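All the exercises in this workshop are built on plain-text protein records. Sequence and backbone structure share a record, each on its own labelled line. The structure tokens are whole numbers drawn from a learned vocabulary of backbone shapes. The record below serves as our worked example for the rest of this section.
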Amino acid sequence: MSLEARAYAVHFADGSTEQPSLTLLGSGSYRAEESSLVDDSINLGDVIANEGGIRFLSVSQKSSYTTLRWTISKSAAESEGLPRFLKQVVEVGGLWEQVMGGLLILHIPQSSAFDAKREFKRQIGQSWIG
């Protein structure tokens, strides 16, 4: 079986649908290759279960990351410090996603002592919004 990611339509209990990038793992399991914007319980690296088509049932295995979802200001998104901060995230084994400019999703290894809030403030000169 090929472990190639592709977009799948995922249907949620509330009737909403999203097309995230998923990798089919077999036996009705898919690994999320990006975080969901519809259901914040699904994050990059999580393994999700499905039932017929892809109707989201649950996250059957959480990823090994702690996920932080921050809304950042336009000035923070465009700052020279943001690339330095994101480089630090990657250097500690983390991953990041930036959606629509102002939504920053960080995935920090659970075993890491990296203080993302402190480093963001140090590199950017301001706090995240939420």
